Amino acid sequence: MSSTVLSSATAQSVTTGVEPIRRHIDELAKCNGVAELESSAAYQRLRPKIARLLETPIVGTAEHSGLTGKPAGPGDDGRLARVIAWNIERGIRAEGIIQALKTRPELADADALLLSEVDFGMARTRNRFVAADIADALGFHYAFIPCYLALSKGNGSEKGVEGDNRESLHGNALLSRYPLIGAHGLALPNGKDKMKGNEKRIGCQRAIIADVAHPAGTFRAVTLHLDAHSSQKHRRMQMNLVLDHLEKLSPPLPTLIGGDWNTTTHDASRALYSILGYVRRVAMGVRRVVRWHYPYPERWFERRLFADLDRRGYDYRSLNIPGECTLHYDMDDLAANLNLRDWVPGWCFHFIRWALGRTGGRCSLKLDWFAGRGLHVDRLRPGHGPSVVHDIRESGQPVSDHDPIVVGFEIPPREDD
Question: What are phi and psi of 171, to 5 degrees?
Fold first, then answer.
């Protein structure tokens, strides 16, 4: 499943390449499962085109060269890099996200953005190329890797949006104030059959990896979105595939991995496993789980994934705030409930509502993380310590269902400094 550095595509070339595939989307969507898809004549004809589409990063270069530098902040000797990781929920509220990145003091001086859940040509986001639009507004370079060719408009409330998909792509992105070198994707095996259920998709999660040519020294950045519909074991396996791949890259560089790792503590690979997981957590005590496990997945349910990071020399402790959650679930949130209904039986909601009644109908989870190697974080110096930025809104509505995480770190001096 590993990838090599491929020639990059442009947005226009992708739009042109998708056109012959679009004519067969409805036919492909009739397949129920990957096995049926792979045996269909239409897919066999289109398979090389689809594979090329999903394996090739789409890159863009900043046009506004005046924005490629930034003033030094307090305690900044020029070696400080600041990075944001953010699941932007497709980019449905892209304008609010752009405004926050420009004006919120905690976000406005970032050197790089590690963005997950990014649409390109989906009706639910008005067929925008979200990564390119954000990069253009900030004057940043970007690299986008498609993960899925969507065969529907999405799940839950997304299915009812007006219009049709155009490019029908969904993926992850890496944006930078400074040039990106060697951008490429890494395919990660699926935790469930993405061709079963209401939201049918061809593809799998992919990490996007590139070297950031920061003036103080180049560092390697990775946007990583681990599979939501998977088990703890599967997420750990995906993480180790990424770490294995990074070991093979040359030259070795200081490295930062960030994104939505879906450390829910649950096995969500099957509806039955999710239901049994909820039952177990009720038996453990709902308040105990909400207070001690959801904010600290590294302590028990997801501990093996974090132990692997430790064993392989990746620091996550100094790059994150312990117990600071990044997703907040409310039983009264209609959109979230509609999305959950696509894979959890309706009767389960009575059980979940009853269980969360002990916590006021709300619970929060820590899903978004950084891990790094060869980086130095001085939590006492201004701008260096990690943070989670809460309550980012546009017209009273959250701009994403996830909170962004931020970290500053020093890039080690080069040998010739």
Answer: -165, -150
CA atoms of 212 and 219, how far apart (whole Å): 5
Burial 353-385 (b: 16+ CB within 10 A, else e): eebbeeeeeebbbbbbbbbbbbbebeeeeebbb
pLDDT of 414 higher than 70: no
- CA 26 to CA 112: how far, in whole Å? 38
Distance CA 393, CA 119 (A): 20
CA gap 30, 96 in Å, rounded? 36
Place of tokens 């905690």: 106
pLDDT at residue 413, as a whole number: 77
DSSP 155-174: SGGGGG-SS--SS-EEEEEE
Mean pLDDT calculated for residue range 253-266: 96
SS3 of 56, please?
coil
Regarding pTM above 0.85, the answer is yes
CA–CA dist 20, 53 (Å, integer): 12
Phi, psi of 14 (to 5 degrees): -70, -45
Structure tokens at 203: 């593809």
- How far apart are the C-alpha atoms of 136 and 133, rounded to whole Å? 5
pLDDT of residue 214: 96
In a 10 Å sphere around its CB, with 0-12 CB exposed, 13-18 middle and 19+ buried, how is residue 269 labelled?
A: buried
**CA torsion, ordered 289, 191, 306, 146, to nearest 10 deg:** -120
At 415, which amino acid appears? Answer: E
| Whether 372 contacts 44, CB under 8 Å | no
Task: Characterize the bridge pairing of strands 362-365 and 368-373.
Answer: unpaired
Residue 313's region, left for phi above 0, alpha for psi from -120 to 50, else beta, is left
